[in-house]
C-alpha cells in the first residue's frame, strides 16, 4: 500500500488549562481531564494536586490540660489546587455523646482553610464502626474539606482527651495529598491512582483531585518521510541446565524517527523544537482518522549537502511505545 498520503505532525504549541478539578470516572481510581493528551514540553508538564495534607497537622491533647480539648499543629495542604497554610489551632472542642457510648469526631480543614471538628452519630453501645456515616462511625466529610485526624471516645464524662484517643493513620484517618500513589497517563490525559481513593466525603465521594495541564497543538511537518514508530521488541536468552534448557525474555523500546527536507535547516520550526519533550502524530493516510502518537525528547541530525536542500533526521526518545488510535 502506498504511503503517499501519509503525514507527520509535531507539537508546535499548547493550549493551557488552569488548575481545576478532574472528573472521577466512577471507580475513584481514574480521574479524567478536559484534554485529549497531556503535554510534557518545557513549562507545560501536568501539575497534579490532590486535596490533602503536605506537611504538619499533628493532633495532640490540649496543652492547657482542659477537658475535651485538642491542639492542632500548623500545617500546609493542597486545597482546591492551592498550596494553603493553616496556622496552629489550640483548644479545639470535642463534643461527647449524651451517654456512655462510642462517638467519633473528625478533625478537618474546611474549604476556607479553617480547622473544623465534625462529630459523628453516637453509637448504641461502646462499639465503634468503620462504616462512614453510621452510628459510632466517623462522619462523612464535606466534599471540599480534608480530614486530618479522628478523636474516638466512649465516655460522656468530661475529661482531658488522651493521646490514645487520637488517630492519624494515613489513608484511614488522615488524607495526604501524595497518598495513594498516582501517575499521569499522558496518552489518555488522566490521572491514575494505584488503589481506589476512600469514599469518605458527602455522597460517598472521594477527595477532590485538581490539576493544571496543557494540551498539545499540532502542525504539519512539510516534506516528511520515512516515519518509524517507537516499538517494543522482545529477545530471548537461554541457559543450559541439567536435562533441559531454561529460557528468559527481555524487552526493549526503540526510538521513533522520521526525516524531512528543511527550508534552511536553522530557522525551521521543527529545528527550534530540538531537545524538547514533544508529541509526534503520524497519519498513514491523512484522509482517515486512524493515527499513531509518540511522546519523547526530540533529537535532530542535520545534513547540509552542497547540491541539495538541507535535510534532517529526527529521533524521538520515548518512555512508552507509540500509541495506536482509531480516531
What does this protein structure show overall?
- This protein is mainly beta and 327 residues long.
- Among the domains are: 53-167, no CATH class; 219-325, Elongation Factor Tu (Ef-tu), domain 3 (Beta Barrel).
- Helices cover 1% and strands 47% of the residues.
- Strands 1, 4, 17, 18, 21, 22, 23, 24 and 25 form a 9-stranded antiparallel sheet that branches. Strands 2-3-16-15 form a 4-stranded antiparallel sheet, with no helix packed on it. Strands 12-11-13-14 form a 4-stranded antiparallel sheet, with no helix packed on it.
- The radius of gyration is 28 Å and the shape is elongated.
Could you name the key traits of this structure?
single chain; 47% strand; 25 strands; Elongation Factor Tu (Ef-tu), domain 3; mainly beta; 4-stranded antiparallel sheet; 327 residues; 9-stranded antiparallel sheet
Number of helices: 1
Q: Using DSSP, what is the number of strands?
A: 25
The helix/strand series, from N terminus to C terminus, equals EEEEEEEEEEEEEEEEEEEEEHEEEE
Straight-line distance between termini: 20 Å
Helix/strand structural class: mainly beta
Flag low-confidence runs.
none
The profile of the biggest β sheet is: 9 strands, antiparallel
* Beta-strand percent range: over 45%
From the spread of the alpha carbons, the general shape counts as: elongated
What is the CA-based Rg, rounded?
A: 28 Å
Q: Helical proportion?
A: under 10%
Mean pLDDT, to the nearest integer, reads 96
Amino acid at each position: 500500500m502506498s504511503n503517499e498520503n501519509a503525514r507527520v505532525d509535531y507539537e508546535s504549541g499548547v493550549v493551557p488549562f488552569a488548575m481545576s478539578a478532574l472528573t472521577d470516572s466512577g471507580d475513584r481510581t481514574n480521574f479524567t481531564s478536559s484534554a485529549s493528551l497531556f503535554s510534557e514540553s518545557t513549562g507545560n508538564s501536568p501539575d497534579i494536586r490532590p486535596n490533602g495534607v503536605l506537611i504538619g497537622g499533628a493532633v495532640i491533647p490540649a496543652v492547657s490540660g482542659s477537658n475535651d480539648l485538642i491542639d492542632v499543629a500548623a500545617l500546609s495542604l493542597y486545597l482546591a489546587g492551592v498550596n494553603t497554610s493553616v496556622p496552629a489551632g489550640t483548644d479545639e472542642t470535642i463534643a461527647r455523646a449524651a451517654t456512655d457510648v462510642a462517638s467519633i469526631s473528625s478533625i478537618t480543614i474546611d474549604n476556607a482553610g479553617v480547622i473544623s471538628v465534625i462529630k459523628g452519630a453516637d453509637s448504641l453501645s461502646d462499639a465503634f464502626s468503620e462504616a462512614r456515616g453510621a452510628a459510632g462511625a466517623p462522619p462523612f466529610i464535606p466534599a471540599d474539606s480534608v480530614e486530618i485526624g479522628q478523636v474516638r471516645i466512649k465516655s460522656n464524662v468530661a475529661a482531658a482527651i488522651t493521646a490514645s484517643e487520637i488517630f492519624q493513620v494515613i489513608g484511614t484517618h488522615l488524607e495526604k495529598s501524595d497518598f495513594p500513589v498516582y501517575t499521569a497517563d499522558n496518552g489518555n490525559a488522566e490521572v491514575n491512582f494505584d488503589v481506589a481513593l476512600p469514599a469518605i466525603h458527602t455522597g460517598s465521594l472521594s477527595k477532590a483531585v485538581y490539576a493544571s495541564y496543557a494540551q498539545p497543538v499540532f502542525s504539519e511537518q512539510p516534506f516528511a518521510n520515512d516515519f518509524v514508530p517507537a516499538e517494543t521488541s522482545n529477545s530471548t536468552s537461554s541457559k543450559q541446565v541439567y536435562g533441559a534448557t531454561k529460557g528468559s525474555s527481555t524487552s526493549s523500546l526503540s526510538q521513533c524517527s522520521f526525516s524531512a527536507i528543511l527550508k534552511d535547516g536553522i530557522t525551521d520550526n521543527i529545528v527550534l523544537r530540538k531537545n524538547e519533550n514533544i508529541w509526534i502524530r503520524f497519519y498513514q493516510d491523512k484522509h482517515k482518522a486512524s493515527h499513531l502518537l509518540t511522546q519523547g525528547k526530540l533529537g535532530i541530525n542535520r545534513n547540509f549537502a552542497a547540491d541539495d536542500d538541507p535535510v534532517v533526521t529526527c529521533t524521538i526518545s520515548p518512555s512508552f511505545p507509540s500509541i495506536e488510535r482509531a480516531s
